[in-house]
Amino acid sequence: MVRFFNRERELSILDDLYDSQTSSLVVLYGRRRVGKTEFAREFIRSKKSIYLFVETKSESFFSGTLRIRWREFWGSGRGWIPGMTFFC
């Protein structure tokens, strides 16, 4: 089990952005193996969200994975939102 601690301030900042009525882009960057992925996963754990780990893969592999995650999230009967039609 991964232990997660000492990130209350950062999680609070993300919560404020998440609750905002405006759009935001958050970029997590840093050295390897310092907990960026676990931080992101901890943040979305209690939220309605889609987690998609992006690696160096082909565009078709990425879009296929996104399509699967989208259907898991929304259910197979729900279509793409208009801004995401380019993934079809």
Explained architecture:
With 88 residues, the chain is an all-alpha fold. It folds into two domains: 1-47, no CATH class; 50-88, no CATH class. The protein has helices at 8-19, 36-44, 59-74. The model has no long low-confidence stretch (mean pLDDT 80).
Describe what is shown at a glance.
With 88 residues, this protein is mainly alpha-helical. Helix content is 42%, strand content 0%.
Helix content: 40-55%
- First-to-last CA distance: 37 Å
Order of helices and strands: HHH
How many β-strands, per DSSP? 0
What Rg is obtained from the alpha carbons, in whole angstroms? Answer: 15 Å
Main beta sheet = none
Q: Which segments are poorly predicted (pLDDT under 50) over 5 or more consecutive residues?
A: none
What's the total helix number? 3
Shape: globular
Number of domains: 2
Pairing-aware structural class of the strands and helices?
mainly alpha
Oligomer classification: single chain
In terms of DSSP E residues, the strand content is under 5%
**Mean pLDDT value:** 80
Features:
88 residues; mainly alpha; globular
Topology, element by element:
Blueprint: H1 8-19, H2 36-44, H3 59-74
